[in-house]
Amino acid sequence: MIYNAPVKDIRFVLNELADLSAICALPGNEDCSVELVDAILEEGAKFAEGVLAPINKQGDKGAKWNDGEVTAAPGFKEAWQQYVEAGWVGLRAPADFGGQGMLSAGGSGR
């Protein structure tokens, strides 16, 4: 089974229901734009479809708990490394600390 992220549906909710352009226009969201959010959405979809979806089933079956230690399913360590290297961990972390400052209160990351 191939996973296709529901990008079209997410765009509809963000733009038509949540009025993303109005949210981006609020004070403190100067770095926000519909185009930037769309680019993040596209890259997130690529990651979900290309990295996470293929290992999802084995993740349901493969993690082990043994003597107080968890062993992740095959592929999860590598997926986490890709997640980190792509900058997803720092998406909402403050820019002052090496993050991208997105999704934080006021958009400034502070």
Write up this protein.
This protein has 110 residues and is mostly helical. The chain has one domain. It is 50% helix and 5% strand. It is built from four helices and two strands; from the N terminus they run H-H-H-E-E-H. Strands 1-2 form a two-stranded antiparallel ribbon. Strand 1 and strand 2 form a beta hairpin. Helix 1 (7-17) packs across helix 3 and helix 3 runs antiparallel to helix 4. The longest helix has 29 residues, at 34-62. The protein is globular, with a radius of gyration of 17 Å. It starts with 6 loop residues before the first helix and ends in a 25-residue tail after the last helix. 2% of the residues are buried.
Number of strands: 2
Low-confidence stretches: 105-110
Category from helices, strands and their pairing: mainly alpha
Spatial shape: globular
Helix count equals 4
- Strands of the widest sheet, in order across it, are 1-2
Mean pLDDT: 88
The percentage helix is 40-55%
Content of β-strand: 5-15%
First-residue to last-residue Cα separation: 41 Å
Give the radius of gyration. Answer: 17 Å
| Major sheet size, sense and barrel closure | 2 strands, antiparallel
Written as H for each helix and E for each strand, in order along the chain, the element string is HHHEEH
Number of domains: 1
What distinguishing features does this structure have?
two-stranded antiparallel ribbon, mainly alpha, single chain, globular, 2 strands, 50% helix, 110 residues
Could you give a quick summary of the protein structure above?
The chain has 110 residues and is mostly helical.
